[in-house]
Amino acid sequence: MRNALPPIAICSLLSLCAVAQLEVVEIEEPQLAKSITGVVNDPSGAALPGVTVEERSADWKSVLRSTETDARGRFHFSKTKNKTVYYIEFSRSGFNWLRIKMQLDKKAKRSLVVKMTIGT
Questions:
Q1: pLDDT tens string 27-56
Q2: CA-to-CA distance for 35 and 95, rounded, in angstroms?
Q3: Listed residue (120, 69, 119, 68) closest to 95, CA to CA
Q4: What is the pLDDT of residues 63-81, one digit of tens each?
Q5: CA distance 44 to 118
Q6: Does residue 36 lie in a domain region?
Q7: Residue 21 in this model has a pLDDT that exceeds 80
Q8: Range of 99's domain?
Q9: What whole-number distance in Å separates Cα of residue 75 and Cα of residue 36?
Q10: Within a domain: residue 120?
Q11: pLDDT at residue 93 above 90?
């Protein structure tokens, strides 16, 4: 499901403005992972540092906690006791926002790998 965000004006020092249309990409199918850790990549598969990663409430309205990907595109949240489903939002300038529902599963073979798309 894709929801369009309002256009954002990006201005240079010369006051020339372009309008970028960013979208929120929501993956409705729960993503299984061994822990609340992962890697964020750009469309080419390269690590994407500086991505804001937020755990949000089930209605997406409240930020419960936040972190940022490191130089290798990695992020980590500690597990919350008795909780197995997390709502995670990824955002970075120039890229479409991404929302996923993450479900912890001890049988999962790896951490989450996320690929963000470039905003148009």
A1: 778 887 888 899 999 999 999 999 999 999
A2: 25
A3: 119
A4: 999 999 999 999 999 988 8
A5: 11
A6: yes
A7: no
A8: 2-115
A9: 8
A10: no
A11: yes
pTM greater than 0.90: no
CATH code for the domain in which residue 24 is found? 2.60.40.1120
C-alpha separations of 57 from 30, 34, 88, 119 in Å: 15, 20, 9, 25
b/e burial code for range 105-117 (CB count within 10 A of at least 16 → b): eeeeeeebebebe
Under 8 Å between Cβ of 96 and 25: yes
Per the domain annotation, does 14 fall within a domain? yes
- Structural domains in the chain (count): 1
Is residue 55 assigned to a domain? Answer: yes
Q: Amino acid identity, residue 54?
A: E
CB-based contacts of 120: which residues, under 8 Å, 6+ apart?
A: 20, 21, 22, 23
User: What is the torsional sign of CA 57, 31, 20, 42?
Assistant: positive
